[in-house]
Amino acid sequence: MSVAWEPVTGRYLRFAFEGRDYRLFVEEAGQGIPLLCLHTAGSDSRQYRGLMNDPEITKNFRVIGFDLPWHGKSSPPAGWHAERYQLTREFYIGIVVAVAKALELDKPVVMGCSIGGRVVLGLAADHAQEFRAIIGLQSSATPSAYYDIEWLDHPQVDHSQVALAAVSGLCAPMSPETDRWETMWHYLQGGPGVFYGDLHFYTRDGDIKDRLYRIDTSKCPLYLLTGEYDYSCKPEYTLEVGKAVPGATVTIMKGLGHFPMSENPPLFLSYLRPVLEEIRHR
User: Tell me, what CATH number does 193's domain have?
Assistant: First the structure.
């Protein structure tokens, strides 16, 4: 049996944000330009394992992922048991900026998928000066609910199984079975109410459309990559963002779904590498 260590290291970051103390899990690999990666609703930074294990990317980019509070290996703040978790637009935008500052990242590239693909539009609108470039995966500007999310918070329902049912059809049918099921496993492990709380942002509080006019791609380039197999963020939703933001680069990725970086890493990287090379040579 062969044994090999992956080049990924993980640590815990303790920092204060909006009057509360947080303990966040951060993992990274590589060196060079910081590339801060934001996971999807209800999941965690393990989704970016393909990037962190790709030597062609990590020789020029320091790939960094962190688990939002309540997600993955990150802890919720003290007093979490006495409140209901709900991800809001302002908190989400603010904590991404705060983490980048806490990690002392110099003009990082930020890339997010799904809820992360939504929040990066807010970062592009209001914090462009702090980022080198912004990459949105499965990016849409307005809330969308394609099923009744209340089932995720029903006391007689296994929330993890409902989460699995909700997202299983969002993977492209040709994505490798092993990668699809690893993506699903992350959802089965989510804490009670976490996916539901994230979808508060995605379906209710996360409207970024009113900020699109503030995005200036001459100051901070915006790249939008969306998989064609996605009924949560349909390709036309991303194309609408592209039309609203002059200078945005839009690519519809063939053979990929809502979780491109984790459901089929090799295919996704074939789309991402040219974008990263363009950013590197700017």
Answer: 3.40.50.1820
